[in-house]
Design goal:
One of its GO terms (molecular function) is phosphoglucomutase activity. The protein is of the alpha/beta class. The chain has 17 helices and 23 strands. The strands form five sheets. A seven-stranded mixed β-sheet has the order 1-2-6-5-3-4-7, with helices on both faces. Strands 9-8-10-11-12 form a five-stranded mixed β-sheet, covered by helices on one side. Strands 17-23-22-21-20 form a five-stranded antiparallel β-sheet. A hairpin with a 3-residue loop joins strand 21 and strand 22 (505-511).
């Protein structure tokens, strides 16, 4: 990681906060320059994202994307309700208004929160799957308006088809192309009615998202074990969409749960700055999570979610803020021993850059692992079929099956991994940090890190298309190379980079989608010196491959 900012872990000076009125003015008045690639509609792994300050996330973009979604629904024969949710970012509120105007004008059966409040991403996925269960037509889909954990000035718009998970590239590619064509044509084919009329339109209805989701939690978690244990639980929603869900959860299930921060503020002024000095609501960052870490001894277990509640951060008295890879490993070991209702032995889903501790605990339990490229969309089919019991990413995103072995969500759900930490503590008498420490005595204690290295756009393009035979050398950090991967072993899909593995370590290199850098993920099961050697040699190997390319 680059040098840590002097502001990291500290509350931001008011002068450094996002100017929200100016941001919203830019949203409504700025027009993208379609000759600038960065200002065109572009769907990444989590939809279209950016800031109005850079003319990347504006009313123009959302008008076009919303109309493209209407056209896609008609093309795909999707004529059930569209569940629309938003998080607490300022641009989410603005984009919500724009989207409602378009969907209402197009006659889409639009479903929004009954209090016009906030809806977590996993709740949208849960609502889609619940509505579609047992249907043969009239399927629902949904949209989460959120840039996830990104800073206050960012916005995001993500489409989830009837399978409830992130849309695949064939869908987003069509929407992207269509939306850009609509913009280039001056938005002439975009249907829209004023917001006041749209909110009263007969095809726009309000719905209580909270109660069905909260009531269903008992079917994926042992909440009675948590209640009867009397655990003291602390929760920090980080000013996000999960905030209005925690009190109903505590009340319904009788939990001793304290919500530590009830503020919703689009500047996120209550956050401590991340490593680079930006206010980023990353619940896996020790700098962003500094206030909750400081309270770790006040609770038996504490946790946080990001603004759309699709990520989790776990804080324990013994370990402080857990590394996401460590928590995923501990969760897997616990779940596969405490879910007798899961049919057979469903596999574990992990991404190509997640810790090998997952593979080691799987081998210990006699489980198979499906390793896929980065992106939750790769887990959707396996979760629906019940073939994957637990799926997770190194960036603290996860989901798992109901106690019966049926699908819960097909998108990341930060709420259930958070509550699972309490279940694990209640049932075993040890917090997840202790459970992970016990595991490392058997599978080894890995050291994991990510660093960025400079790369030109041309080099990034080469890296994305590398073949295994372009990776030179026979050893990595003194160990024989076992595998050179450019395609994920779990499904054979290219992951846009390279992964090199040995018996006790590995590295993966992928180009950044937003910056002129490539990312090197590395892990060692030996020591810190071995990890640093892997990182250094990884840079040399990738540089040589880039030079040859």
């Amino acid at each position: 990681m680059a040098d840590v900012s002097e502001f990291a872990g500290k509350l931001a000076d008011p002068s450094r906060l996002t100017n929200i009125p100016r941001l919203l003015t830019e949203y409504f008045t700025s027009r993208p320059d379609m000759s600038v690639p960065a200002q065109r509609v572009a769907f990444g792994t989590s939809g279209h994202r950016g800031t109005a300050f850079d003319s990347v996330f504006t009313e123009t973009h959302i008008l076009a994307i919303a109309q493209a979604i209407c056209l896609y629904r008609a093309k795909a024969g999707i004529d059930g309700p569209l569940f629309l949710g938003k998080d607490t970012h300022a641009l989410s509120e603005a984009a919500f208004a724009t989207a409602v105007e378009v969907f209402a004008a197009n006659g889409v059966e639009l479903v929004i929160d009954d209090k016009l409040g906030y809806t977590p991403t996993p709740v949208i996925s849960h609502a889609i799957l619940t509505y579609n269960r047992g249907r043969t037509g009239g399927f629902a889909d949904g949209i989460a308006i959120t840039p996830s954990h990104n800073p206050a000035e960012d916005g995001g718009f993500k489409y989830n088809p009837p399978n409830g998970g992130p849309a695949d590239t064939d869908v987003t590619g069509w929407m992207e192309k269509t939306a850009n064509a609509l913009i280039e044509d001056g938005l002439r084919d975009v249907k829209r009615i004023p917001l006041q009329r749209a909110m009263k339109a007969p095809n726009v209805r309000r719905y209580d998202f909270t109660t069905p989701y909260v009531a269903d939690l008992e079917n994926v978690l042992d909440l009675e074990a948590i209640r009867s244990s009397g655990l003291r639980i602390g929760v920090d929603p980080l000013g996000g969409a999960g905030l209005p869900y925690w009190a109903p959860i505590a009340e319904r299930y009788g939990l001793d749960l304290t919500v530590l921060n009830t503020a919703v503020d689009p500047t996120f002024r209550f956050m401590t700055a991340d490593w680079d000095g930006k206010l980023r609501m990353d619940c896996s960052s020790p700098w962003a999570m500094a206030p909750l870490i400081g309270l770790k001894d006040r609770f038996d277990i504490a946790f946080a979610n990001d603004p759309d509640a699709d990520r989790h951060g776990i804080v324990t008295p013994t370990a402080g803020l857990m590394n996401p890879n460590h928590y995923l490993t501990a969760s897997i070991a616990y779940l596969y021993r405490h879910r007798p209702g899961w049919k057979g032995t469903p596999a574990i889903g992990k991404t190509i850059v997640s810790s090998s501790s997952v593979d080691r605990v799987a081998a210990k339990l006699g489980l198979s692992v499906m390793e896929v490229p980065v992106g939750f969309k790769w887990f959707v089919d396996g979760l629906i079929a019940g073939d994957l019991g637990f799926v997770g990413e190194e960036s603290a995103g996860a989901s798992f099956l109901r106690k019966t072995g049926e699908v819960w969500t097909t998108d990341k759900d930060g709420v259930i991994p958070a509550l699972l930490a309490a279940e694990m503590t209640a049932v075993t008498g040890k917090d997840p940090g202790e459970l992970y420490a016990d595991l490392t005595a058997e599978i080894g204690a890995p050291i994991y890190a990510r660093v960025d290295a400079a790369a030109t756009p041309e080099q990034k393009a080469v890296l994305k298309k590398l073949s295994a035979d372009q990776i030179p050398g026979d050893t990595l950090a003194g160990e024989p190379i076992l595998d050179r991967l450019t395609h994920a072993p779990g499904n054979g899909a290219a992951f846009g980079g390279v992964k090199v593995t040995t018996e006790n370590g590995w590295f993966a290199a992928r180009p950044s989608g937003t910056e002129n850098v490539y990312k090197i993920y590395a892990e060692s099961f030996i020591d810190e010196a071995h990890l640093q050697r892997i990182q250094a040699e990884a840079k040399e190997i990738v540089s040589a491959a880039l030079g040859a390319g």
